[in-house]
Amino acid sequence: MSSTEPDPALPVKDLLADSEERIRLLIESVTDYAIFLLDPEGYIISWNTGAEHVLGYTSDDIVGQHFSTFYTPEDLARNHPANELKLALANGRYEEEGWRVRKDGSRFVSSVVITPVKDPDGTLRGFAKVTRDVSQKRLLKESEERFRLLVAGVKDYAIFMLDPNGYVVSWNLGAQNIKGYRADEIVGKHFSTFYTQAHKDQNYPQEELRIALKEGRFEDEGWRVKKDGSQFWANVIITPLYGSDGRLSGFAKITRDMSHRRELDLQLADLIRELESFAYSVSHNLRSPLRAVGFNSRILLEEASQNLDEEHQELLRMQYASTVRLAKVVDDMLHLARISRLPLAHAKLDLTLLASETAEEIKAAMPKSSCSIEIEEGLIAHCDKTLIHTVLLNLFENAVKFSPEGGHVRFGFDAEADAFFVSDQGIGFEMEYAEKIFLPFERLVGENEFEGTGIGLATVHRAITRQGGKIWVKSEPGKGTAFYFTLPKAPEA
Question: What whole-number distance in Å separates Cα of residue 397 and Cα of residue 403?
Fold first, then answer.
């Protein structure tokens, strides 16, 4: 016979006593619930370990005290403890959630159940009271409710939930405003409802969910369809949601109508194209006259030594130098315009080889420089060869130009930044000018200190962004400069 089983040979009275002892020990060992008995008037006559943990009183502190000790002054003022006992007697049970007070005066949200305890003849012996601290649960519930109300009230963003298969399970006011469906019209429908037929034929909605699961997030801009059949340009973000057990519970989807911004972007792009076309035309038409002026100035300068005094010769030299500089500006402007108009031809490219060839060009163009250019091996990118050659040519020239004699220029890939870089040990600059240097004609040094038109870095910026990349710079005065740029990833095979 198991030691935990009652002995059938024991008298019924002893069996009952044994059972009551076990129940007492069980109650005494519970630590998450305050379980105690009250007499018919509400005075405490028993106290378990859980009660001490929840309410802070030891058995010696509280047994014999009235249970109203645990109530707030507001509840005491309305005689709530006595009313709880009346309701428990009338209904056979009383249950509520409300504020209670610990021994140290702190308050907590309590789940309370009070049950009358009676003899077989119906005589009231007292009350059993079970109390649990549900503060965290209550706060979490209130927080979730506030968040739900916040999301539901957002008007500018469609924020809704999908189940793991892509069916809509929630719908906010912004979703109704943007897409035109009421919640009762769309909840339960598949989110592919919002996609064009071309996207549906390509199974694009499911592909979005697949990417979101794989990468933890999906973001896109494209055409979506409203209830009335009209299309709008949408920015879409999809994020997978997981339960506490790690299982996929669905997706959160945020959509914003970007039609107005897209229209402005298109208008701006048209304006930029017009300005670039104008700049190209003006620059092209200026080249011949400038070259003629430069040629004539040089001829006059060669003959001036016999016919003009030193002052007038100096004026001619200044005129010739200004003409040469202006011609260089025009050439650089034409180059910038061509970069903007050049058709792209992306292909896999050996950047190490191209950079080495570009470094040789720099050495030939700047033979007096003792600066070295170190190029990392194994650099590969998917890009336009003409544009990336322009980028390397300008960045190498800049790095060499601003480096000290015997300086060291490096070209490689920074894994932490996930970007290519060109660094030097040159004069550097304050980072407050980091954005300014990519603007045309913006120079941080005087024309007499270093040659240049102020268009080179603007050309680099245009060449990188046209390929879908980004460029930024880090620098410190006297410690050098590093330009970082990204290029589009090669398409998956």
Answer: 10
Contacts of 71 (CB under 8 A, 6+ apart): 80, 81, 100, 101
Taking phi over 0 as left and psi of -120 to 50 as alpha, with beta for the rest, 246 belongs to left
- Dump strand ranges (E) for 19-173: 34-38, 94-101, 107-118, 124-133, 158-162
Q: What is the pTM of this model?
A: 0.42
Query: Residue 376's Cα: distance from chain center in Å?
Result: 32
Q: Give residue-wise pLDDT tens across range 89-109.
A: 999 999 998 899 999 999 998
Q: What angle do CA 237, 240, 243 make, to 5 degrees?
A: 150
Cβ-contact 85, 67 below 8 angstroms:
no
Order of all β-strands in the sheet with 372-375:
372-375, 408-414, 419-423, 480-485, 471-476
Cα separations in angstroms, 333 against 273, 319, 440, 446: 14, 21, 9, 20
The CA angle 260-265-267, to the nearest 5 degrees, is: 95
Distance CA 443, CA 331 (A): 18
User: pLDDT tens digits, residue range 41-72?
Assistant: 999 999 988 899 899 999 999 999 999 999 99
